[in-house]
Amino acid sequence: MRDALEQLLFRRYPGFYVGRHMPLTENLMGFGFTHGDGWFAIVDVLSGLATQVMDRTGKRIIASQVKEKLGGLRFYMRRADDFIGYARALGERYSYRVSELSGRPGVLQIGDGHYCTLAPGERAGYGPVEPRDTPLLGVGEPGALDRLREGYQRVDKMPPPQGQHNMLRQSGAIWSHILWR
After folding, report:
1. What is the pLDDT of residues 20-59, one digit of tens each?
2. Beta-bridge partners for 67
3. N or C, which terminus of the chain has less Cβ within 10 Å?
4. Distance CA 70, CA 164 (A)
5. Is the dihedral of CA 150, 152, 153, 154 positive or negative?
6. Contact 37/103 with Cβ under 8 angstroms?
């Protein structure tokens, strides 16, 4: 990810990305975000959700690594609760439908043994891998990023979830509204 986007995330969520100041033996955020610019919105939404949970509960959640692996986003956190863990898993799944490079609708592709999620024709020598199970409608369409932001802003207006089952259901409902129309 471009340095300017990294710095923006560090400024927006300083408590969540405190690990970037830790030694690499304790936290890998010192390497920065090792993925393309296209996933910036996903990382921004997940960072915002984690920060809102920290503000609401007083619990400290720390990002420990954010990277591309096998064509998808991997977002590792320490001390995340079930709500954030489930939101993270859904955000990672969503990354398989968004180009890592451009943020346009993408598909998992392979070239020279390396997996990437790319928009069709975005990188020479890469071709599609078998399609995943559920297409995400609206990815890359006008207003898609606005729906992402609206969804995570809606979290502040929701009552605190009661119990693990309700946390998971609430997190799933947020992402379902954001990602699948």
Report:
1. 999 999 999 999 999 999 999 999 999 999 999 999 999 9
2. 34, 74
3. C
4. 30
5. positive
6. yes
